[in-house]
């Protein structure tokens, strides 16, 4: 019962201090070991990151820099292609010769899932859907 | 992981601007000019010009790629065409003074919103927010770069608001 009783006025020092809220302007933290991001030590990176990352094998900084530049160029183009694909009709070739079309919405950063709308399936139209990229062989659209 | 997924970014880069034939799972084949290979998923992005002047873009997912064979190299006009495909519109040219004015004005706006911002780069033209986000000239929402998507979207929203405010004043 002692624990549940409200703080008495005599030891209300803390309670008093809490009554005046202090505005704290702070930006969210950057990626760390337990959040999403590309921190090489994070469990997420270790699970999903390419183990072929040659930068882990070759400690040569010049080579590493070159590889990183290449990776940036490749990735930027790919991300821009996803932007160009948004709200466009895209046809997906899935395994077992299944072909479906849908309006592309978004992708997660690891390109593991695509969010699509108006998915035309053999069983009717699905308003919203997530497609697992592991089920897709290829996709195409016109620009 | 397949042979294709295990390649390094520099190896993938050597396929860019080449016409290739891709053999994928279930005997599917795809042909086109390589725009890029996503270094995260190893997806190959191909472009194939259509007769109506449009481009057909197809992507073969990295896990489904079985073989990639180079059949042709791009000439300069093709390379040019491929590199501009997804890039944003050619930038409007601004004079140096105009750019400086834009930078100071945006910096002031961010500071009134309690966002810590510094100038950096060789010519001090890049704005850096909290050491994790950069804004390059001409300082539009799409000129922001950050690996932290939460900060990125917040700062982009702020810039959007700032631009909307300016539009109202004009």
TrEMBL record, chain A:
Database matches in Pfam families: Gemin7 (PF11095)
Coiled-coil regions listed in the entry: none
CC terms in the record's Gene Ontology section: SMN-Sm protein complex
InterPro entries: SMN_gemin7, SUZ-C
Source organism, top-level taxon: Eukaryota
All residue ranges annotated as the SUZ-C domain in the record: 1-42
Biological process, per Gene Ontology: spliceosomal snRNP assembly
Full protein name: Gem-associated protein 7 isoform X1
Species this protein is from: Eublepharis macularius (Leopard gecko)
Gene name of the record: GEMIN7
Automatic annotation (TrEMBL), chain B:
Gene3D superfamilies in the record: 2.30.30.100
Predominant subcellular localization, coarse grouping: cytoplasm
Domain called AD: residue spans: 69-167
GO cellular component: Gemini of Cajal bodies; SMN complex
InterPro entries documented for this protein: AD, Gemin6, Gemin6_C, Gemin6_Sm-like_dom
PROSITE patterns noted in UniProt: AD
Keywords for this protein: Cytoplasm, mRNA processing, mRNA splicing, Nucleus, Phosphoprotein
Record carries keyword Methyltransferase: no
Compartment annotation: Cytoplasm; Nucleus, Gem; Nucleus, Nucleoplasm
Family matches, as CDD domains: Gemin6
Biological-process GO terms, alphabetical: spliceosomal complex assembly; spliceosomal snRNP assembly
Superkingdom of the organism of origin: Eukaryota
Keyword Nucleus listed: yes
Function: The SMN complex catalyzes the assembly of small nuclear ribonucleoproteins (snRNPs), the building blocks of the spliceosome, and thereby plays an important role in the splicing of cellular pre-mRNAs. Most spliceosomal snRNPs contain a common set of Sm proteins SNRPB, SNRPD1, SNRPD2, SNRPD3, SNRPE, SNRPF and SNRPG that assemble in a heptameric protein ring on the Sm site of the small nuclear RNA to form the core snRNP (Sm core).
Known partners and oligomeric status: Part of the core SMN complex that contains SMN1, GEMIN2/SIP1, DDX20/GEMIN3, GEMIN4, GEMIN5, GEMIN6, GEMIN7, GEMIN8 and STRAP/UNRIP. Part of the SMN-Sm complex that contains SMN1, GEMIN2/SIP1, DDX20/GEMIN3, GEMIN4, GEMIN5, GEMIN6, GEMIN7, GEMIN8, STRAP/UNRIP and the Sm proteins SNRPB, SNRPD1, SNRPD2, SNRPD3, SNRPE, SNRPF and SNRPG. Interacts with GEMIN7; the interaction is direct. Interacts with GEMIN8; the interaction is direct. Interacts with SNRPB, SNRPD2, SNRPD3 and SNRPE; the interaction is direct.
PANTHER family cross-referenced by the UniProt entry: GEM-ASSOCIATED PROTEIN 6
UniProt protein name: Gem-associated protein 6
């Amino acid at each position: 019962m002692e624990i549940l009783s409200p703080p008495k006025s005599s030891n209300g020092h803390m309670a008093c201090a809490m009554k005046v809220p202090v505005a704290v302007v702070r930006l969210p933290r950057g990626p760390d070991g337990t959040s999403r991001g590309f921190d090489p030590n994070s469990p997420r990176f270790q699970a999903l990151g390419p183990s072929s990352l040659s930068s882990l094998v070759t400690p040569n900084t010049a080579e590493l820099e070159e590889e990183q530049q290449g990776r940036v160029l490749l990735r930027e183009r790919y991300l821009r292609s996803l932007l160009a694909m948004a709200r466009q009709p895209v046809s997906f070739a899935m395994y077992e010769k299944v072909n479906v079309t849908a309006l592309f919405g978004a992708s997660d950063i690891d390109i593991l899932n695509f969010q699509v709308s108006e998915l035309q399936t053999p069983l009717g139209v699905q308003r919203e859907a997530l497609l697992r990229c592991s089920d897709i062989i290829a996709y195409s659209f016109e620009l | 992981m397949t042979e294709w997924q295990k390649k390094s970014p520099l190896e993938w880069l050597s396929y860019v601007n080449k016409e290739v034939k891709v053999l994928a799972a279930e005997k599917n084949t795809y042909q086109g000019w390589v725009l890029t290979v996503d270094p995260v998923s190893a997806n190959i992005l191909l472009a194939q010009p259509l007769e109506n002047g449009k481009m057909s873009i197809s992507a073969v997912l990295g896990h489904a790629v079985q073989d990639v064979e180079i059949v042709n190299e791009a000439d300069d006009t093709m390379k040019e065409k491929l590199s501009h495909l997804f890039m944003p519109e050619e930038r409007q040219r601004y004079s140096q003074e105009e750019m400086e004015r834009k930078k100071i004005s945006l910096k002031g706006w961010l500071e009134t919103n309690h966002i810590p911002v510094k100038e950096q780069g060789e010519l001090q033209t890049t704005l850096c927010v909290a050491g994790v986000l950069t804004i390059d000239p001409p300082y539009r929402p799409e000129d922001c770069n950050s690996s932290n998507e939460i900060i990125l979207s917040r700062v982009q929203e702020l810039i959007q608001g700032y631009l909307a405010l300016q539009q109202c004043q004009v």
